[in-house]
Amino acid sequence: MAPAPHRILRVKRETHDTFTLTLEVPEEAGGEFAPGQFSMLYVFGVGELPISISGDPGVPGQLVYTVRAVGKATGSLVKLRAGDWVGVRGPFGSAWPVEAARGKDVLIVAGGIGLAPLRSVIYHVLNNRDAYGRLTILYGARSPKDLLYRVDFRSWSRQMDTHALTTVDHGDLRWRGRVGVVTTLFRYVRLVPERTIAMLCGPEIMMRYVCAEIEKNHQLPASQIHLTMERNMKCAAGFCGHCQFGPYFICKDGPVFSYERMKPLLGIYEL
Amino acid sequence: MENLEKILSEHPFFEGIEKAYLDILAGCASNVRFEAGAYLGREGEDATSFFLIRKGKVALEIRTPQRPPLVILTLEDGDILGFSWLVPPHLWRFDMRAVEPVRALALDGRCLRRKCNENHDLGYELLKRFAYVVDNRLQATRLQLLDVYAAARS
């Protein structure tokens, strides 16, 4: 599967090291995706990398990706400007369980750049508001300067039947919001276990702590908790084996998994 | 006094506690208010009480030389603030600054220690509740130490 060239429409600086790229989808490419899926973005002459789609699935004709510059390929990607081209393969992988969540309360827990793969499911819930119950969004970042999507977050927190809370691990005197890790936000949340579906994304260690918190203190069964996993991906089609995680290939069987499937594997150090 | 018992019984920290204990605890409690920017306590000062926050937000800060204070945790409605009244030498370990106007109940530490010494069942009940909060804060601090977002990739 060869990358299809897509033109960059916009580049928005989200934080000091994180940028959102909006790509124009060529007519023949379609551009449909399900919330939670990812694409392989090819920076010509540099390399290819998996990036979750973070845009609104209800807006056709464009694909949106939020990228944190942490290496050579991501560093090159965020240096591109409107009018430049990138190669796109995909979308790939499994999606957030938006159908299973219909009629239920939705709990979103994101850490750091992990809010990006969850933004598309938040858009989906808000676009189909009557189909879902209460929407709770808990978001943790390293510091105030690392908070993503500030405008979106303000808008989400004003929506009816939506509870959006944010916190940072370390604050300073100018920060008037919450300070504490993302698990501390659960003090302000009441979940109804039998009608809640949880969706998590963030560093794996953070997700382990959050899963333990949700299971132990909120009695949500593992089958109702879903998380997105990350490993080094290359082919995105389950052939190369780079992203193997126990019996699964993250690119093909994931990246979204139920915690029920992941729980026995998350504690295995060698994986 | 009846009013304080009601406020105590409605605070999450004392959820489900026996009424007899509430009567005893109310004898050590008083309503307090702090304006934004005021300090509920400063590092090294006598920890004479602990607080049940009813409304508002408090930042726990660590002072470091030649740097602005670092905020390590905020606490708000329904949270409790202060363990130092329990543990000798009963001195605050952090600065506690009201980020917003704060309404709270202050429970006098000396009064509580005396009543717990007289009534070990009350003391055990209080310690169980404090241990739960301390355990949660310790877990959160461990996660904070990991600095998990520093190396996160997209």
Overview of this structure, please?
The complex is a heterodimer of chains A (about 270) and B (about 150). In chain A, about 20% of the residues lie in helices and about 30% in strands. Chain A is built from 6 helices and 15 strands. Chain A has helices spanning about 70-75, 115-125, 150-155, 205-220, 250-255, 260-265, and strands spanning about 5-15, 20-25, 40-45, 45-50, 60-70, 85-90, 105-110, 135-140, 160-170, 180, 195-200, 225-230, 245, 250, 255-260. Chain A starts with a strand and ends in a 5-residue tail after the last helix. The relative contact order of chain A is 0.14. The mean pLDDT of chain A is about 90. Chain B has one domain: Sandwich (Jelly Rolls), CATH 2.60.120. Helices cover about 35% and strands about 30% of the residues of chain B. In chain B, the strands form 2 sheets. A 4-stranded antiparallel β-sheet of chain B has the order 1-8-3-6. A 4-stranded antiparallel β-sheet of chain B has the order 2-7-4-5, with no helix packed on it. In chain B, helix 1 (about 1-10) crosses helix 2 and helix 3 crosses helix 4 (about 120-145). Chain B is globular. The interface between A and B is medium-sized, with 41 and 28 residues.
